[in-house]
Amino acid sequence: MAKKKEPLRKCVVTQEMLPKKQLIRIVRNKDGEVFIDDTGKKNGRGAYLSKDKEVIEKAKKTNILQRHLNTTIESTLYDELLEEVSKSWENT
Description:
Oligomer: single chain
CATH architecture: 2-Layer Sandwich
Helix content: 25-40%
CATH topology: Hypothetical Cytosolic Protein, Chain: A
Strand order of the largest sheet: 4-3-5
Radius of gyration: 13 Å
CATH superfamily: YlxR-like
Protein name: YlxR domain-containing protein
Number of domains: 1
InterPro entries: YlxR, YlxR-like_sf, YlxR_dom
Domain YlxR: 9-81
Organism: Tenuibacillus multivorans
Distance between the termini: 29 Å
Order of helices and strands: EEEEEHHH
């Protein structure tokens, strides 16, 4: 039986192609709301970040999410992302 192919996505900061499960998806929906998509299936414009504290800090410093999602990003979103990363490190 053939092994199921794992989907790859590109981190907007590091430009690395990684398995989707190793990334965090951030979405901007039609109403302009920006949030973390835990399911990876919500409608809207998406951007992926590696589950790495340094990558998230670099994204904040360079405003790369703002450019990818064409909207302003609240600093609270970065706090949520850092919290999400620390949770995923605790689970491993």
